[in-house]
Amino acid sequence: MSRQSNRGADPRKVSGELFTLTYGSLVAQLVKDYENDEEVNKQLEKMGYNIGCRLIEDFLARSSVGRCYDFKETADVISKVGFKMYLGITPVVTNWSATGDEFSLLLENNPLTEFVELPEGHSNLNYSCLLCGVLKGAMEMIQMEVAVWFVQDQLKGDNVTEIRVKFVRRLEDAVPAGED
C-alpha cells in the first residue's frame, strides 16, 4: 500500500485490520501444528485467558468504570465498555437465565472473522475461541469464575455469533502460600 493511499485512513481501522490478519495467521499456524480442532480451541482459549488476565489492568486504568454490584451490571460493562474499547463493537446482552446467572452476548459483526472462511474439514474449530478465554481470564482477575462458550457462530452459517457466559462462583482473595 502506498503512502498516498493511506492518507485520510483511520489509524484504528488499519490497526484493527492488521490485528485481524495477524490473528488469522496465528489460527492457521495452530491448525497446521495441532491438526485437531479441539486442541486448537484449547490453545486459543488458553492464549485468550492469558490476554484477559493482563488486559483487565489496562481496562481498569483506561476506563472510568467503578465496581459493579451485580452480574447484570458486569454484563453491561463487558458489552458497552470492554468490547467497544478493544474491538470497536457493542454486542447485545440478551437471553438472561431465570436465575440471573447466565447471559448471551450477540455479535452481529465479529471483527476477528472479517476476512475468514473456515477450511473444509474443520467444522469443530471455534475460530474466535480466544474471546472466550479473554472473558474468563479478565473475570477471574476480578474474582468471578465464569464458564464461557460459543452457542452460534456466523462462520458456521448462523445469523449471529452468540457467546454464552455463566457465573460459576465468586472467588475469594487467596493468601499466598506461607503468608497466612
**How many alpha or pi helices?**
5
Question: Which spans of ≥5 residues are poorly predicted at pLDDT below 50?
Answer: 1-6, 10-14
- Give the distance, in angstroms, between the N- and C-terminal Cα atoms: 59 Å
User: What's the overall geometry?
Assistant: globular
Q: Total number of β-strand segments? A: 4
| Mean pLDDT over the residues | 85
User: Cα-atom Rg, whole angstroms?
Assistant: 18 Å
Outline the biggest β-sheet: 4 strands, antiparallel
Sheet with the most strands: spatial strand order: 1-2-4-3
- Helix and strand string, N-terminal first? HHHHEEHEE
What is the SS-derived class?
Answer: alpha+beta
Strand content: 15-25%
Kindly state the percentage of residues in helix: 40-55%
Provide an overview of this structure.
The structure is a single chain. The chain is of the alpha+beta class. Helices cover 47% and strands 16% of the residues. The protein contains five helices and four strands. It has helices at 3-6, 11-34, 37-62, 71-87, 129-141, and strands at 92-94, 102-107, 144-152, 161-170. Strands 1-2-4-3 form a four-stranded antiparallel sheet, covered by helices on one side. β3 and β4 (161-170) form a beta hairpin. α2 runs antiparallel to α3 and α3 (37-62) packs across α5 (129-141). It is globular and about 45 Å long. Residues 1-6 and 10-14 have low confidence and may be disordered. This is Trafficking protein particle complex subunit. Its main location: endoplasmic reticulum. May play a role in vesicular transport from endoplasmic reticulum to Golgi. Homodimer. Keywords: Endoplasmic reticulum, ER-Golgi transport, Golgi apparatus, Lipoprotein, Palmitate, Transport.
